[in-house]
Structure formats: C-alpha cells, structure tokens
Amino acid sequence: MKKFLLFVVVLSMLLTTAVGCSSNKPAPLTDDLGRTLVLKGVPQKIVSLAPSSTEILFALGLGSKVVGTDDDSNYPAAATTLPHVGSGYPSFSIETIVSLKPDMVVAFGYSLPDYVTKLENLGIPVVVLAPKGVNGVISDISLIGKITGAISQAKTLTTSIQNSLNNIESRVKGVTIPRVLWEFDGTDPSKPWIAGPGSFNDSMITLAGGQNAGDIGPTSSWQMSTEDIIKADPQIIILDDYQFGVTVQSVEQRPGWSTITAVKNGAIYPITDSDLIDRPGPRVIDGLQILAQDIHPELFK
Amino acid sequence: MPSEPTDLLLQDVSFSYSGGFALHNINLFVPTGQMAGLLGPNGSGKTTLLKLATGVLTPADGNVLVGGENLRKLSRREVAQKIAVVPQQFDIPFAYTVEEVVLLGRTPFVRGLIGDDKKGLQIAITALDAAGMIEFRNRYFNELSGGERQKVVLAMALAQEPTLLLLDEPTAHLDIAHQIEILELLRKLNRDKKVTVVAAMHDLNLSALYFDRLVLMDHGSIFADGSPDAVITKEIIFNVFSASVEVSRHPKTLVPQIMILPPNH
Amino acid sequence: MFGLAIAVIAVMLLSVSVGPIKISVMDIAKMLLHKIGLYGNTSGWQPTQETIVFQVRLPRVIGAALVGAALSTAGVLFQGLLRNPMADPYVIGTAAGAAFGAALAMLLPLSVVFYGFGLVPIAAFLGALGSVLIVYRLARFGGKAPIVSMLLAGFVVSSFLVAIVMLLLTMSDRLGLKLQQVFSFLMGGISVTYWQQITVIAPLVIISIVVTRFFAGHLNGFSVGEEGAAYLGINVEREKIIILGIGSLLTACAVSIGGLIGFVGLIMPHAMRLILGPDHRFLLPASALAGASFLMLADLLARTLLNPAEIPVGVLTALIGAPFFIYLLRRTRREYAF
C-alpha cells in the first residue's frame, strides 16, 4: 500500500511538473492597440518612432540597443546622436528604418498608423504604444520591460513612478478641486484651442487634483469661445502655447477675460518645458508634479 | 434730337495692332448729315477704322476729329455724348429688361448717385419707340430674337442722342425683313434728325440702295471713295474682292446692283 | 430696402441676445441705450453681463455683419465686372493669397498685435491684396487687362499659391502643430477679439460699400462687355482697376475677420438679383444689407447649435444658404433668371 501511494505521489508530481512546464510559456503580449505581439526572441536592435518611447527605452537601460529614432527624440542626450528616420508628420522613411535592420520597432499612435502594416509586411514586428494617462505610461514601461527582458529595471522605474503618483494623489485627495483650463493654441484669441475630454492633458489635470473646464467640448482638442470660457470661469489657466509667443500678459488683456477668476487671481501658468508635461514618457511624473504645484500651490511648497 | 452738327474727320491716320495688321494713311471726311457706308472684304480694316473713329483705339499717327474736336483731348464720357456705336456682337449675361438696356444709353449723361432720372427715361422711351420696339419694353432682352435684339441695341445707341452714329455690320445675321427695317430706320434718322451715320456693311447691294456714299477699304487703306456709281464697278469689285460680278442698274432706284458670276458658268 | 435695413438691426439685436450666458433682449436694449446716454437707470443687469455684451458679443456680431456685407458686395462687384455669374470674391486669387499669408504667419514664432489684429489676419489681408495685384499685372498687356486674362491669371495664381500652402503643410513640423488652426481658418469663422479690429475694418468696409454705389450705373454698363462699356462713355481700364481694388479690399477685410467663408459672396448677389433684378443701383445696397443679416444669422446658429462646440460658419452658410437659394430659384419663373 505505501509503495503504491508513493508511486502515485511521485507520478502526479512528475505529471504536474510536465504540465506546469508547458503552461509556463509566457502569455501572449498585446500592445496598446490590442495587437498580439509575435517576437522571435529578445530584440537586440530597436528603432523608436516617438520621443516618449525613446525615453522609456533609455530609462530601462536599453540605450545601447536603440539603433535609430524619429527626428524629434531629444532626450536623453545620447539619443540625439542616433540616426534619424524621419518624423511622423508627414511620415517616416520606411527605407531608412529597414536599412537599420531592426528586429523591433516601437511606434506611437491612438489609431493604427499605416506604416505599421508596411513594416510588418517587411517582417519587422511593431509595438504600438497609446498610453491613456499616467497609468498608461506605467503599463507601457512594463510592457517594454517584458518584451525586452528588462523586467527588473522596468519594475524599479514603475515602482518609483507609482510611488510619486500615489504621493501626489494622496496630497490632493479631499481638497477642493479647482477648474482648470488648458490652452493649446491662442492664435485666435477669441476662441482658443482647449484640451477637451479624453485628452492626455485632461487626465493629467484630474490626477493633479483639478477639473478640466474644457471637458464639456466635443473632442480632445477644440475651440472654446470667449463667452463659454467666461461662463466656465476657470480658476487656473495653463498656457501650453508659450512657444508660439502667447504670454500671460496677452491673455490678461483679452477683452472680457478680466471677469475670469484665473485672470483676477493671476493664476495663469505658462508651460516652459512642454517635453516634461506633454510627453507620455517616464518624465511625465515630473511634469505632473509641476502641474500639481500650479493647481494646488498651497499643498506643494 | 441733336442740337449741333457733327462731322467726322480722320486725318492721316495710321494704326497697327501688335499682331501686324495695320491701317495706313487714312484720310476720310464725313460731313454732317451724311450716311456713309464702309465696305471691304473681311480683314480690310473696317472695324478698326470704326474703333479709331470712336476713340476706343488711338491712332499711332494722325488725328481723329469729331465736330472739329480732337478725340485725343476728350474723355471717354465726352466722346460718348457725341458718338454712339452699335457693335456687331452684343450679349448680356444678366436678365435685364429691354427698357433697362435702352436706359444704359443714358450712362454718359448720368452723374453720381442718381435715383430716378426722369428725363433720361423719357429719352430712352422715345428712342425705343423710334426703333419700333416700344411693345417689348418689359420683356427680357435675352429672350428676344436676333433681329429684335439688334433693334433694341440701336435704340440704346439712340438714347445717347448722338450726333454721329457708327454701326458695325448692323445687318449681319438678320433676315431680309429685319435688314430692311434697320436700314429704313437709319435712313429715317439720317434724313429727319440729321444724324451722321457711318456703317460698316457687308452687303454691297443693300449698301448701294441705302447709302449716298460708299468708302471701300482694302488691306488697311481706302481703295475707293464716292457715290455708289463710282465705287461699285466690275473692275473695282474684282480688284478688291477677287470676285467676278456683273453690275447692272436697279429697276426702280437706278443704283448699281451686282450680280455674282460664279466661275463655272 | 428700408425693410432690409430694419432686418439688419433686428437680426443684430437677436444675435447679441443669444449666447451661453443668458441675457434678455430688454436688458441689452437698456444697456445700449444707456451707453449712448438715453437711459439713466443702471440697475437691472450685472457688470459681467455688460462686459459680455459689449466686449464679447457685440464686436463679434458687428464683425459678422461687416463680413457678410463685404463679401456680398464684393460678389456683386466681381460678378458685374467679370460678367460672370459664377464669379465670387475669391475668383481672382484672394482666397489663395489669404491662405498663403495665413500659413506663412502661422509658421513664424512672432506674436504681433496691430490694432487688435494678430499676425495671421494681417498676413491674410496682405496676401489677399497681394495676389490680386499679381493677377492684374499678369493679365495686363498693352495697357489693358482683358477680363478673360484676369480670370485665367486668377486661376493660375490661385493654384500655385494653394500648392505652396500644401507644400508648407507637408514639410513643416511647426505648421503641422498648427494644423487644426490652419483648417479652422480655411473653413471660416468669425474671429473678433478686440474692438480695435472693428474700428479699423468698419470704416474700410462701410466707405467702400458707399463708394460702390457711385459706380452702380457703370457696373450696369459693364454688362454689355468691355467694348460696349467704352462706347457708353466708361473709362474701362481705369474703372476696372477701381472696382477690382474695392472688391479686393472688401474681400481682404472680410478674410481678416472671418477667414475663408464661402458661399455668401457667390449666392447673395444672385438671390438679390432674383428678387430685385440686375440693376446695380438696387443690387449693391440690397446685397450688402442682406449679406449682413444672413451672416449674422449663420454665425448665431454656428455658435449655438452645438454649444459649446462651434460649427465653422462657412459650413453653415452653405447648409442654410443652399436650400434657401433653391427655393428662390423655383419661385422665379424667368428662364434667364439672373
């Protein structure tokens, strides 16, 4: 009897190990657009098609594996010397990408860009990132970590970002939520372009303890008339068009805007480093910190 | 209608288009009250001469004088108060009524912000009546037939109360009845109101019937100038038109009439 | 005509009274009267309401009226001068020139404010006028600029400038960031921020429109062709330049406030011709007044229908204008309707 039981136990252990091994194959990975990724091993030569992706790769210590970037990748400094493959606008140079012989391309886009299909037809796997909010960035970092085998570096980075995020969230919890207006483009001062619902900036505002006054609009970027802005009466205005010459003073002088609380209180904050706050990469948490300071100066000294 | 007599004088006039065609040394005097016909093959310079006579083209050499005044010294407005033109082609892209079109003839006399020009309207109506088109007053110009339109255009010219009336092939494209109608009208104007008339004509026989003086042009110069008898001769017609004709006399009026001799008869 | 004038005022009052923030017509009337010294009692409305009416709504509504009047009048002028019922204020290159100017301005990192106008409207204004100048010079030969040549030159210059704008859009990252704004300009929308803009544009537009009235008889004369017009005593080349100039100035003014608003300049003259006939002495003032009312109405709908989102005015002018025009067309029994 004992011998028989021992035999059953050993047999079942062997069986479970065998079964367990086969289910230890990693679950298929999907990118932000829900596409299943098929990779032939750990990528060694990566092309990044967005500044945010470049930053993620370098932050994970994968800088040596990046063989090319888009024209606008400007951080970190090491990335600027890499070969450029064009810019998303109007379109990347497929030929240049292919000539770098990458075994993975990291792209960015909330809908599938058509160059992705072209690249995949040429046998180059493409990962598309489309982060929604800071949490989206965190999951992107994990994803890249899993794909490239830099799992522990990814964990370190995401933990750090998550901690900072939790810190900010806990500080702004329960505090009154001011109305925030985020201006993209003030070329037409009578109806400037405003961050609307579903935009990245919209999620940033919420995380920083504010309420996006522009979320009553139809799209993620829309023109809001002066009268509607006056009606919404934002308490804080963020100027994301500094580089086009829009100054705090010019905003204050817009007719009718003197009735707006943000103008009355001088709470108009221009963004001087939009790379920090508009780029969905690892440094976005620093941008969020700055935003939270603007929205709740009393909480962040 | 006119209050002062007007004659037309082209003095040593030369002109050339940039394309090359030129008028040389034109000397032509049309005394007040004359009805002169301008003849010549296509491209001989009839239309060009008329345009020089109106001042729309400026001669390179020589002068054009109307009633003794040099056209170079007159503004377009002043010219239009003396000279009226009935051009060959006339089409209006908008729905003006006949009355509105004839009223256009008052343009050279209207000043600035005129709301109602009662006197002008009266003159326009008279002109329309003289052209025999008074019943068409409220019809749309574009709805009229070719002959009817030509008469309206003539009425418009008459509304200018010109002392000199120039016409560019007024009978072209019209059927016989209308051709005669127009020419009768012109003759009546000329005889009754002493309007000087110069018309470019293509029909030699009709010209001989209605005009006291014919000016025949060829290759930019005046080839012959005089009464129908003097101008319409077998030799002259052959030289200028390269056509063989037989010239006979009109049974009633005795003016020369041509009969075409086709080459194979 | 008097009726049209009353309509303009009524529409203006209506337009000013409608908006996201509720202000009654009575209050607005009182505010206006108070402003000109006829009403002493200042209670009954809040200062923010007054700010909104006088600093936000009124300039915009007046801007819409001016644009509507300017485009309609320009349309009449070009249709009459070019003897072409299909002509609109943009036909000899003004639209392409304005788009070119605007695109260039959006490329530059300058922030200029001149009498309330930013770089974009100024560049659009200059671009519109500049392109007409080029078209005229191209068409001019031997001291004359025949109308057919101008139409052709207009087409050619427009195509060229549009191609350059497309090129800029493709090649410039910076312009790519401004793509939405470029598009917004092209679709048209009343954009008045400062009263100064009105004080500059209003006299230009109003005086131009009044001056055109003096040319009404001669515009009628142009209907018979350039040659016929000369026979009627019109100094054709000189008046062509003047009428072209005024038409282009009106269009440039309209573009500087409203971007490229289409449809009004083409259809309003036709609509008025169907009602009043082609005599320019009536057509000109009527088109200006009707155009003003129409555009104020279109702008009103543009900003209220999908509030807070705004429909581009050019879209609305076509949406309401087209059915209205078809209705007019069917009502008229003339074959040669225009």
Descriptive report:
The complex is a heterotrimer of chains A (about 300), B (about 260) and C (about 350). Chain A is about 40% helix and about 15% strand. Chain A has about 300 residues and is of the alpha/beta class. Chain A starts with a helix and ends in a 6-residue tail after the last helix. Helices cover about 30% and strands about 25% of the residues of chain B. In chain B, the strands form 3 sheets. Chain B has a 6-stranded mixed β-sheet, sandwiched between helices. In chain B, β4 and β5 (about 70) form a beta hairpin. The relative contact order of chain B is 0.17. Chain C has one domain: ABC transporter involved in vitamin B12 uptake, BtuC (Orthogonal Bundle). Chain C starts with a helix and ends in a 7-residue tail after the last helix. The relative contact order of chain C is 0.16. The interface between A and C is large, with 37 and 38 residues.
Q: Give me the strand/helix succession of chain A.
A: HEHEHHEHEHHEEHEEHEHHEHH
Which value, in Å, is the CA radius of gyration of chain C? 20 Å
CATH class of the largest domain in chain A: Alpha Beta
Tally of alpha and pi helices of chain A: 13
- Overall, the morphology of chain A is globular
Count of alpha and pi helical runs of chain C: 15
Q: Return the CATH topology of the largest domain in chain A.
A: Rossmann fold
Annotation, overall tally of beta strands of chain A: 10
Q: Give the total of beta strands of chain C.
A: 0
Q: How much β-strand is present in the residues of chain C?
A: under 5%
CATH-assigned fold name of chain C: ABC transporter involved in vitamin B12 uptake, BtuC
Q: Uncertain segments of chain A of ≥5 residues (pLDDT<50)? A: none
- CATH H level, superfamily name of the largest domain in chain A: Nitrogenase molybdenum iron protein domain
